[in-house]
Structure formats: C-alpha cells, structure tokens
C-alpha cells in the first residue's frame, strides 16, 4: 500500500517505521513537494485519512519487524524446508574502524602487498567469535573490535581488513574464483548496483554440507544476530548473481608450520608409492581419527592402511563411489592440510572399520537439518528394505519420509512407544549398520 502524500503529513526524521521511511524516500526523489489541491475545508478529513493510513502502516510494520527479528517469514516453514530464509540486510557505507578496536592493519584492495596476511583457519575462527558472542545486527552500531555490525562489516572483520567495507568495495580485496573452487574462508558476494540497499549481501563460506554441493555452511551477519547455518548455494534469493572471491592476502598452511597446502599429485599415492607425501598423508589421517588403521605408524611406503584410512576420511565427508576410492585427490588433500571437513568417526563395536560409522548424535536428525549423516541413514534404510516412504530417494535433508522409514525399522525390532518415534538413537544406528 502506498501512503497518500499531502502537505499536512510530514514524516518524522527519526522514525524508522515503514510509513515514514517510504515518505522520506519519496520526498527525496521529488524536486518540489507535492501540495494538496483540494478545498481547505476538506483538509481536516484528508489529514485524518493520512494519519489513519500511517497508523496502519506502523502497526503492520511492527508485525513485519517482529517476524524479521526472529529470522523467519511470518509463516513458519515446514519441517522439510530450509530454516531461516533470507532476511533484509541493509548495510552502512565504507568507513574506518570505530571505537576501542579502531586500530587495525593496513588495508588497500588495490595492492595485495599491503594487505594483512591471514590463513583460512584464522578467518573461520574470527567468524566464529561473532557467532559465539551473538552480535546483534545493526548497520549503525560497531562491535568492540571496531567493525560495523552488518553483513559487510562482518566480512571485513573476518578477513581482518583495516576498514569497514561494503558490498560495493569488498570485491577489490579478493580474487574472483569459480564456485567449484570454494574453500573455507572465501566469500560469496552479491552487490546490486541498481539499488544496493535491496538484496545486496555477503557471506563467509564455511564448507560444503553434502557431497552434491547443493548446500554450504554460511557464516553471516543477518537479523537478528550473527549466525552459522546450512544455506542453499548460493543463497535463498538472487542465487545466480552471487560471485565467489578469495582473499588476496591469504597465506598457505598453518602459521609457523612451513607446510604447503598444494596437492603433490595423484601419482604420489597408491601401490608402489614410496615418498614423504605418503608419510605426511598418514600423519594427517591419524590426527583426524585414523589411528586405528595403522598397526605401525605412518611411513613413506604406501600400504593398505593408507588406503583404508583415506577412504574412511572420504566417506566421513559424505562422498561415495569414485570420490571415496581411498586414493587422495585435490579435495581430500585440501581438507586434510587446512584442518577442515569432518573427522573420521570412531568404529562401531562389532563392525569393520571400513564400513562402520559411529552414531553422530541425535541433533543431526531433526526438522530443518541437512547433512551427510541424514543421507547416509537414508541410504542404509533403503539397503535394509525400509525405504518405502521415499518418493524421490534419500538426500541430506531430514524430512518426514526419513522419520517414517526409521519408525518402520524400529517397529520391526519389536519396539513401541517412544522407542519407535522415528528418530534414530545409538541402538537404532548400531542395528542399521551392523
């Protein structure tokens, strides 16, 4: 609804309601004010109409803002939908750091030589600090570290820039990359030059949540506070217009380690391989939960232990078939050298270390969840003959079909009541994967 504009109705300068905001934008776009041409005797009635209309806008605005503050639309999403759809993310302009954290590293997107050096782990750790602190969203306020509490201020903080940037300038600090090359610490940016206040947004990429790469973990500053959650690639709206960038000042490896993340090549691994890369692979696999595969510590000669441990790590990421053949490729190497991805789960008692998976926890199997554990559960249910409720087959998103198939399996064990509620527990998991 458009609020009628009369000379007698003037929006308050400090009012943030939708009615006054609309009036201020309309007034700014006009060279001269619109005057009422009606008879003076009608002004009183018209003024009453305007005030009533404005009051209605204020009341409706309150409801809309309450819904936005909850991070959801007014209509609650179903259990099988993605949670917390796209919120409004207005942002401030480019400017210096403010407050106690005003002293920051030099930052100039035109010359990467003066950018503060950082690593992927450091970027993600900085992003996690605001998540833990539950920093409230604001395009006007600044957190204790000096960064503006909006989406672009958040990425400026995560990338350790010396200024508060906005979506129109952040790209100058990165190198454009393909989405297929995204790694933790990169950003996904959408800047709408036609109207920057509508839709423009930026997130920190935290890693893929499924092997089909349809969803990823997004670290972002959005109403009502900083959040980390599974997000459709690249976002709910304007998905095809998001561009991936990698920070120009990104360093290789862990600080002080002197090690490179560059993949040495597939020919360095497999039967007959004997080199330092095999040793390093084994050491990284042991650190990620693969110790049980090695009777004797990792060494330079490729063996069955290296293949089994590599395959277990690949399967932990939700990969299957050729993606989990036990031979490391660029993606496997990247996750290991950067310390990202999922660790190898502990073996389930009574199972083979190559085929068993430890129960990951009940929290992965709830409405709104999307992860590789749900996909693995679904495929095992189908394999065991309990997949009749799937219409299009299992996938990483938890749905009512998953719950009903789990319930059917539980009832087949003779369980009833809360023991057959359709949500897997440790015993359900053990019997499914035994």
From TrEMBL:
Belongs to the peptidase C40 family. It holds the Pfam family NLPC_P60. Residues 99-113 have a biased composition (Low complexity). Transmembrane segments: none annotated. Residues 148-207 form the NlpC/P60 domain. Residues 72-113 are annotated as: Disordered. GO terms for molecular function: cysteine-type peptidase activity. Keywords: Hydrolase, Protease, Thiol protease. This is NlpC/P60 domain-containing protein. GO terms for biological process: proteolysis. SUPFAM superfamilies: Cysteine proteinases, PGBD-like. NCBIfam families: PG_bind_siph.
